[in-house]
Each structure stands twice: as structure tokens, then as C-alpha cells.
Amino acid sequence: MTMAPSSPPPPTAASSQQARPERTILRVPEHTVEVVSDSGEGAQKCAQIFGRVSAKMGNGVWTVEIIPAEIQPPARTPESASGNRIRIGTKPVTNWGDHADVVVAFNEQVLLHRHRLGALAEDAIILIEDQWATHDDPDIRKAWADAMEELGQRSYRFIHVPMEEQCLTVTDTPRRGKNMFALGLLAWIYSRDLDKIRELIAQEFRKKAQALYDSNVALLELGHRWAEEHLDFRIQVPAIEADRPRVVMNGNQALALGAIAAGMELCAMYPITPATSASHYLSDIFERFGGLVHQAEDEIAAAGVAVGASFAGKVAFAITSGPGLALKTEFIGLAVMTEIPLVVVDVQRGGPSTGLPTKVEQGDLLAALFGQPGDAPHVVLAPATMEECFLSMTTARRIAEAFRCVVIVLSDANLATGVQPFPRPEVNEQWLAQSPDLGPVREGLRPYEWDPERGLSRRVIPGQPGGMHTVTGLSHDEWSHVGYTPDVHERGCVMRSRKLAVFQQMLRPPLVHGDDAGDLLIVGWGSTLGAIEEAVDRAREEGVAVSSVHLRFLSPLEPGLKEIFRRFKKVMTVEINYSDEPNDPYITDENRRRGQLCWLLRAQTLVDIECWTRVPGEPLRPGQILQAIRGHVPQEVTR
Amino acid sequence: MPSEDRAGLALDVFKKPIGAFRATLAATADEVRGYLATRQSSWEGKVARVSAELGPLAIGRIDVERFATLVEDQPDASPAALETLGGALAALGDLAGRSEQLCVVEVPAGGSLYEVVGRALAEIGRAFSAARLVSEVRAGRFEPAGGGVAAGPLPFSRWTKAERRLAPPLVVRVQGRDLRAAGLAEFLDGRQRLVLVVEGECAPAPLGRLITPGIFVLQSADGSGLDRLLAWDGPGIAALVPDSAARFAHDPSGGAAAWERLRIEFLPDRAARRAIGGLSGAQQMEELELLRSLATRPAGGETRPAGPEPADAAAGLTAADPADKLAAWLLSRVDLSDAG
């Protein structure tokens, strides 16, 4: 084993014969780990198990997947970097943090990728596979040397680990086993419970042969032993004593389970990253609860199936991502016009077009709000955590049914693939579908018998005695008769819009994180909650008078925003979507395109709201937001 | 293998359809509870219910009392309807509470296999009976002459086509000497599957007479083949028999001709001379001969014999005249089982 404080050491194979080193035990409230490999080498599995076992042991955890943009990029290239960042803490962890403190890298190129993105702490400890330094291929040796030179500009501490050599003592295919060896290293460094890891491995490989499980466990134990014999440090992140049982899952699993808990009966979908895993997970278990996942021939058909099922009285939802949302536009419009309750989940990714399928972005807000032609009022709800992904399905369903409206749930790739523990939900039977009333309708009931004040009308299900009527996407009157006269169309628009106003008046103003008044108010939505609040807390510790508000309802907007904004000298949204920088060429106050929530809030409140947005394809880091806060705090009192 | 173990083996193979049936019971019970809740609550109860329905995410974000004002008050149901629904809920709870044991019955020594199976299926039919009452009440079609109506046993003969496809498999423990299987043909419809776990000596081919083009018939000593019965999307029967009995599988998906569908693994040379299960030695031999003849490929029969396509064969269509054939095909696709 060789360690170097600031420059890359000559590669050496560690000897198991040498005496065990003296150990430093570092006790910290939180630590961030990255495991990176070429795509297909299993770093994600290693990291996922590490994250899950940490959560099971009581640590706060937040994980973020590092996913290449392509399915199988060339090996040993920076673009091939695949893995996971796991931030663990004594307290609950709400975001992926700023930098990785410990990195396990399967080759120097994937490490270089993370280094160039500024993902590693200045003093990060890097456990790196050392076979490349002495590889037979001179190009590989040169690539190693070049990379080490570039990496040597920072104060990383390198620990060379003979992963391949060690793994060959257990398996003939070390490329498929290094991940478990790496898991063993991490398990020793962070004192993770090996029995719990073995359980998770068994769960992971439950459909595979016993020999595969045995080999993986042997590799895990090998890595653990190697670390014990060679490493001179351990890291302790004390666990939280949980007062309630907790569950650990990613946002897509939470959405799927939430759909079941909400009594959903049909999930209509067409495969699209990063939404697909939710319906895959659901398809494994939905039928046990009387539900069905229907994979349609395309996104449009999936929306049609969901609308049709809901029309027939079933509780249906569709799940998709940005490009799919675009295709569903027409059917969403039909559901709005016919007032058929519908939940549509959009797990956002980078756009436009096919954009960044595996990357994070909050770029669909305006499309979700205004994507339909004509006036198509509907509800948009954005969960901010994995737990809220679970809970949002129940709330969305009930709103959709009570208001006969469409509810779009905006999740994103950060929530979809990240893992976080949260208290086990106490599932309530009343969340489940209360079946539509199929009793005879009152004689003379009109299918759109709008309450003139609230715009609400009773839902009539096909087959209800006395409820027969035609359904049309054309403009129609209360009898559902097509009508093109100005008053018919006007009245329909008013009634559909009125429902949203009624719902808005039932919403409560959002809570302010921090003081109720101050110099700067940050406004966010969706998965940035944790990073924003951490940045705000850090800024407040520096003495900055900053607070934040995080919105869940984006249509209609939560009430009281203008009043809250008035109490701050400056209001700024923080979002993961594109906006022009004010000082860029050609950009003026007149033509500047702003962040999507910023645009919405400016229009709705007439407050001169600023925005700070980025589209890095990865979650925002609290440190980045902190810098933005520092840069935007008003320098003088102008209230 | 003891019969308990073999019954357990069968239950294990069929755990998916049993689970699906139980999930349906639970879902129906949930629907009834939801219906009752909307018709039996005060304003406070309504607010509490609406709050629960909105879920924890709504806490602090939505004014639940105002939201509850939107939720329509449902018309009161009649006392008789409520009583009936209460009874249906109890029946569903009772059936769900029996777990997988609902799907296992035993024929007492000397008892009638036909009667035991009929009673067990009628008991399962209580679930359908309850679901029908719920449906009638919710659709406003429930008009009892007096008080509530109980969700009583519903004989298989009164099950609808949909119910016959939803019913769980039934595992029946029976003594070989009581194994009179021919009468069970009445229950082989829809997707009903019966698994007979036979104890003691039995006739060599007790299920032979049940072989018809659309019915999966299996005799197995160790349970092999049950997975194929599970996969078959139609009615079927299996018997887990002693080693001395014939072992065969008649799989309707095997082809149009009997010899394509029937695979015999073991056929005893002779039957017992004495009567077993009500069948004389000669009758037992006749069943073995039946199997032998069905499994024999016709001379020169390399190609599929002329006749209807397999799907039509499964529907029992053999008409030669094209017009008759078309008429028969149309009739086979019009389900009249619910009529009347």
C-alpha cells in the first residue's frame, strides 16, 4: 500500500504480509462517498447496497446516481463513469452535498471525470484500482500517467488497491466482482454490519444461483479483510436512534407504492427514462393489490388508456417523462375538457426533445402548466422528497376526483433514482379508492351540472341508471351537447377555471424556512428542497438574513406569496432549468429568459423576482447555492 | 410423500391465483367499507374521512374542512341495504380470514367427492354472492322485500363466466377408494382448477374419462406437471396418485388431435381385478384402453389430421359444412352463460 498526501505515488501492490498499520479513527457528523466504475462494472449496485445498509443502521442517507448518458459508452473513458454518490450523516440527509470525501474508483479515467466536475473534496481519500499503472498496453500506462499528473494538482490522498489481483483469487471474472470487493472496503472503513450486507446481497441475487451469492459474499469478505489489513484509518458516522420504523427507497419506488396506497387501479405507461423503473417496480407487485400496469403502444395511447379507464370509473394514472408529457398533451386536454379525473406523473429529465435522458432537470414546469392548447386549467403538484413522492399520489388522486380535474405530479430524476430513508408510512385504509357511486342519478341531472359559483359538477360513470350521455372533447354545454355559440364556450371555460380558483382558496400559505422577513428569500420547488435549505442554514450561520420557501402546489399557486415576498428585500428562485445570465451578450432585462418558476411568480405576483438557475445535468450542490446567496444578498437596505 | 405435503405442494404451485383471489376479496371489502363510510358519518366524521383521504401531504397545506364541503353528501341507503352490505362485508372478511385453507377440503372416508367439491365451491361462491349484493346496492337495484339479504353460498352452476375465471383452485384430499371423478366434469369450466390429493390405492386412470379437447387433465405421482396446469388458461384437473397408477398429462395446447395433446409417462399393464372407486376391474381396464387409444398416433399420421384449427377444436367445433362451421364458431364466441 502506498499513500501520498499531494502527488501520485508510484503504483505498488499491497502486501498482505506487512504488519497492520496504526489506525486513525475519524469521527464525523457526516461523510460523502463515491463509487465510480466503467458502466457495467457494478459500482451502482455496490453503492446502493452501501446506502441501504447505512440507512438500515440508522444513518441519514441521500444517494445520487452517476449515470453515463449512453447505455454502453467506451470503457476507460471519462464518459463511461457510472456509479453513485452516497452522503451519510448522523442526522437526516436531504441532498447529495458538495464534495465526495472518499472515492473508490475502478480506473483513473472515471476518476478524472469526477475530478473535472469538481465533485471531489480537496483532501479526498481515493482508493483506486492500481492495475492500470503497470498494464501491458502502453497506451493505458500513458493514460494512467497523464491522468495522475492532472489529478496530482490537488491534495488528494491516493491509496492504491490491487482490486483485480485480489478478486482473481475468488473469481475468474474480476470485472464482475470488483464491486463487491469495493463494498467490503467501504464496509470496513465505515464499520457497516456485514450480516446486514449479506442479507441485502441475498435479496439482490434472490433470483440467481446460490454460487453467485456465495462468490459475491466471498468478494465482500475479501475486500473487508484487505481493508482491515492495509488501511490506516476508519471513519465513524454515528447513527441516529430512530423513534419510528423507517423504510428506505428511491422516489420511483415511492411513487409506485404510493399509487398502491392511494388505491390506484391502473397504471398506463410507455417506457421512458427515468420514469420506467416506477412502472417496472409496480408491475412486479401491482396485481397483488388488484391493479394493472398497461404498457401501451406509445405515449399517446397510454394517456388515452388512462383517460378511458378513469372515464369508466377506475382510478387510473399515467407515468412518463418530458418527451412523453409532450405527446400526452392532446389527451390531457381531452381529460380537462371532459372533466375526467386523471393523475399524470412526469419524472422530469433534461430537455428539450430527447435531451438528457438520464440526467436531472426541472425543465418541464412550464410545459406541465401551459402545454395544452386552449385554456386547460389543471393542478400541478411537485413532491420535494422521496417520502412526498409516496404521499403525493394519495393527495393527487383525491384532488383529481373531488374537482374532476387533471393533476400533474412533477417528480424528477434526482428523486427518481436517489435513495433516502423516511419513517414508515402508516397506511390508512381510507387512502384507498372510494369507489364511484353507481347509484341511479337524479332524474334530469345534467352531466355537467355546474355549480355556478364553484364550477363543480357530479361525476357520472357509464352504466349509472339515468346517467346516459355523450362525451365530447368539443366545446359543450351542461348537457354535454356540442355547442359553438360564444356563451357555451365562455361558460365552459369559466366553470373549468373556477374549480381551480376554488381549490386555491383551500390551500394554505407555505411555511417560511428561517425568519419571516429578511434581506433575501429563496423560492424553490421539487427536489432542490434539501440543498436549498442547507445552503440557507449555512448562510444564516454566516449572518446572512436569508430564508426560503418551497412550493408544492404550482398550479394553482399557494396563497399569500405576494405578502411573504413583500417582507424580503429581494426574492430569488433557485431552479435546475435554464435561464439567461443577465450579463451575457445581447441579454437585456427585456429579452432575458428566466427560470421557469421565476417567470411564473413574476407573472402572478408582479414582483421583480430574480433567479439563479443551472442545468448541469446533476442535482444542485448546497455550496453552489450558498455562493449564489452570497452573490445576491442586497448590499444596502432599500426597503 | 404424505398427503399434507402434497397438498402443500399444490398450494405452493397455485399460490399466485390464490393470492389474486384473496386480493379481490380484500378489494371488494374495501369498496364496501368505503361505501358504508360515505353513508354513515356525521360532519365531523366526514371531515376526518376527507382528511384521511387527502393523506398526510395535505396536512398544513390544504384546509380540510373547506375541502370537505365540496364532497357531495351521498343519498342515504335504506336500512335493509346497509344491513345487507354489513352482512356482505362479514362474509368477505370471513372468507379472507381463512387464508389459503379456503382452497383445501377433505372428503371424509366413504364420502362423496362430488358433494364435497360442490359444497366447497359454493362456499367460495359466497364471495361472488357478496360482490353481487354490493353491486346491486351501489347501482340502486337492490330492492329487498323485507330486511337485509345474506351473502349465502352460491353453487358453481350459478356462477357467471367471469366468476368461473376468477375462482381460486381447489385442493381436495380424497381416499383412492372414494375417487369417483367423472361427476367433477360439471365443475370444469372457465378457469376452475381442481387438484385431487389421493391417499391409498386408486383406480389406475381415474381421470381418464374427463379428457376432452379443452380440459387439462393430469395424473402425477410427484406433482410434476402442476406448473403446466397453472399456466393453462382454461379448466383443468390433476390427481396426485400413488406410483402404481398411470401418469399422464393431457394438455389442450398440445395440438388439435388427441395424440398430440396426450403424453403418457407410465401406463400399468393391468388393473386390479376388484372394484376400486366404484369401478369394476373391467371398467378400470377400459379407462386404460381409452388412454392408450387417445395417445396412439393414427397410422401415417405424420401430418395433422384434417379438421378444425386447434382453437376451434378447443371450442368443440367439428362441423364440416363451412356455413355450419361459421355459425358454430360465432355461437362459441357468444357467451350465454350469464343469460337468465
* Whole-number total of structural domains of chain A: 3
Order of helices and strands of chain B: HHHHHEHHEEEHEEHEHHH
Average pLDDT level of chain B: 83
Inertia-based shape of chain B: elongated
The main β sheet of chain A shows up as:
7 strands, mixed
Q: How many strand elements of chain A?
A: 23
Rg calculated over all Cα atoms of chain A: 27 Å
Low-confidence stretches of chain B: 303-320, 334-340
Strand content of chain B: 5-15%
Alpha plus pi helix count of chain A: 20
Outline the fold blueprint.
The complex is a heterodimer of chains A (639) and B (340).
Chain A lengths: L2 E2 L19 E4 L2 E9 L4 H14 L3 E7 L14 E9 L10 E6 L2 H9 L3 E10 L8 H14 L5 E5 L1 H5 L10 H12 L4 H11 L5 H21 L2 E4 L9 E5 H11 L4 E4 L6 H10 L6 E4 L3 H13 L4 E5 L1 H6 L1 H10 L3 E7 L16 H6 L8 E3 L4 H18 L2 E7 H5 L1 E5 L62 H19 L7 E2 L4 E8 L3 H13 L4 E6 L1 E3 L5 H6 L1 E8 L20 H10 L4 E4 L8 H11 L7
Parallel strand pairs in A: 2-9, 3-6, 6-7, 7-8, 11-12, 11-13, 13-14, 14-16, 15-16, 19-20, 19-22, 22-23
Antiparallel strand pairs in A: 1-8, 3-5, 4-5, 10-17, 15-21, 18-20
Helix pairs in contact in A: 1-5, 1-6, 2-3, 5-7, 6-7, 8-9, 8-14, 10-12, 17-20
Chain B lengths: L2 H11 L1 H25 L3 H12 L9 H7 L8 H19 L6 E3 L6 H26 L22 H6 L3 E6 L17 E7 L16 E5 L5 H6 L4 E5 L6 E4 L7 H4 E5 L14 H15 L14 H5 L7 H12 L7
Parallel strand pairs in B: 1-2, 2-3, 3-5, 4-5
Antiparallel strand pairs in B: 4-6, 6-7
Helix pairs in contact in B: 2-5, 2-6, 3-4, 5-6
3D architecture notes:
The complex is a heterodimer of chains A (639) and B (340). Chain A folds into three domains: 3-236, Pyruvate-ferredoxin Oxidoreductase, domain 3; 247-431, Rossmann fold; 512-632, 3-Layer(aba) Sandwich (Rossmann fold), CATH 3.40.50.920. Helices cover 35% and strands 20% of the residues of chain A. In chain A, strand 6 (100-105), helix 2 (108-116) and strand 7 (120-129) form a beta-alpha-beta unit. Chain A starts with a strand and ends in a 7-residue tail after the last helix. In chain A, 53% of the residues are buried. The longest helix of chain B has 26 residues, at 113-138. A seven-stranded mixed β-sheet of chain B has the order 1-2-3-5-4-6-7, with helices on both faces. Chain B is built from twelve helices and seven strands. In chain B, helix 8 (226-231) links the parallel strand 4 (216-220) and strand 5. Chain B has a domain at 201-297. Classes of the chains: A alpha/beta (639), B alpha/beta (340). The A-B interface holds A 262-263, 287-290, 383, 388, 391-392, 394-395, 398-399, 402-403, 425, 428-435, 437-440, 454, 456, 458, 463-465, 502, 505-508, 510-511, 552-553, 558 and B 19-20, 23-24, 26-27, 30-31, 33-35, 37-38, 49-50, 52-58, 60-63, 66-67, 70-72, 74-75, 135, 138-141.
